[in-house]
Amino acid sequence: MHDLVIIGAGPAGMAAAIYAMRAKLDAVVIEKEGCGGQMAQTYEVDNYPGLPGLSGMELGEKMKEHAAKLGTNIVYDEVKSINNQDERFILHLESGQTLESKGIILATGATHAKLGVPGEDRLAGAGVSYCATCDGAFFKNKSVAVIGGGDVAIEDAIFLSRMASSVTLIHRRNELRGAASLQEALKKCENVSILWDTVVEEINGQYSVESLSLRNVKDNEDFNLIVQGVFVAVGINPVKAAMDGLNCNEKGYIVAGEDCRTNIKGVYAVGDVRSKNLRQIVTAVADGANAITSFTEDFR
Predict the structure, then answer these.
(1) Per-residue pLDDT, 278
(2) CB 84: neighbour CB atoms within 10 A?
(3) What is the pLDDT of residue 45?
(4) Residues of the chain below pLDDT 70
(5) Using CB atoms within 10 A of its CB, is residue 174 exposed (0-12), middle (13-18) or buried (19+)?
(6) Active site residues
(7) So what's the pLDDT on residue 107?
(8) Ordered structural domains, the chain, with CATH
């Protein structure tokens, strides 16, 4: 019987683990892939106070080392279901293991949204990518496109400009939504161009990406763009928790305030899966700390 089970080892989950260990709680972290979450796919984190210039993978490793130093138990497994029974939670894992706890912290994060156009799924891994830092090196001296207009899309375009021969940023609106500092950095990239008011209709290619079928939303003109790679950065979708009865908003994010309490006593939502205005590493870490404070108030 644990005090807490933390599901997810991104920045929110790792911060929760660190604060749980410091509070002398019996907590275990369940992670189905690897520590770091989406942060691990970020080539450079320049807005986390005190640690500018680190890659997301490096920052994730530092968080993991910090948590491990305090005695955090990280189990690499997947939670298949959670039952609320007799004021305790029973978690069933993919491996067949069963855990019991007083509380649950959901740090399940979010996944990349898709365009939903023909050719996207068929050419996934053959020129279609959702992670520039993972796959960018495969497109050295090639022409690529980035789809989106937020921070991630701009970061991807900047990163890819360092290795690709040309980068075309395709955005459905007439202005970018990303941070002003990122937009300034983008303007300095001589091999990056922007297609405004444009959407992707289809990703073309027999065995790998060869071109994009595009449409200008203002004049409804169709045209093609020759590229060998396309990086999709159009947003994220929350990862659904393996638990029934949670109150979620219309986009699927778990409804919880700054104290991270959900509508179920003993269940707390942290990081990108929680309903909030700003999803950043620093806000995820804050959620992890707040959730532990709420738990100790509720159960001690």
Answers:
(1) 86
(2) 16
(3) 83
(4) none
(5) exposed
(6) 131, 134-135
(7) 98
(8) 2-111+237-299 (3.50.50.60), 114-232 (3.50.50.60)
